[in-house]
Amino acid sequence: MSSNAYYLIFSVILIAAVIFTVIIGNSRTNKEGNPEYDNKTRGNWSRLTFFYVIAIALGVLALIIYVVNRASL
C-alpha cells in the first residue's frame, strides 16, 4: 500500500473525529446539560478509558502494518 493511501485513511479518520466532536458539542442534549453526568464519574471514566485503549491499539496496529509494508518494499 502506498503512503498516499495511509495519508487518506488518516485524513478521513481525523475529519470524521472533528465532525463528530462538533456535532456532539452542539447537540441539544449537551447544551441542556445532563445532571447525572457528574454523579456517574466512574462509568464515564471507564468508557473514556476504554475508548482510548481501543484508539491506541488501532493506532499501534496501523503503525505496525505501515512499518511491515514499508520494509517489504
Brief descriptors of the model:
73 residues; mainly alpha; 3 helices; 81% helix
Question: What does the model show?
Answer:
The protein is built from three helices and no strands. The N and C termini lie close together (10 Å). The chain has helices at 3-25, 28-32, 41-71. The model has no long low-confidence stretch (mean pLDDT 83). The longest helix has 31 residues, at 41-71.
Write the layout of secondary structure elements.
Elements lengths: L2 H23 L2 H5 L8 H31 L2
Short note summarizing the structure:
Helices cover 81% and strands 0% of the residues. It is mainly alpha-helical and 73 residues long.
Derived from helix and strand composition plus strand pairing, the structural class reads: mainly alpha
Task: State the total count of DSSP E strands.
Answer: 0
* Integer-rounded radius of gyration: 17 Å
Query: What is the string of helix and strand elements?
Result: HHH
| Biggest sheet character | none
- Helical percentage: over 70%
Distance between the termini: 10 Å
Identify the overall geometry: elongated
Strand content: under 5%
How many helices?
A: 3
Compute the average pLDDT: 83
Q: Ranges with pLDDT <50 over ≥5 residues?
A: none
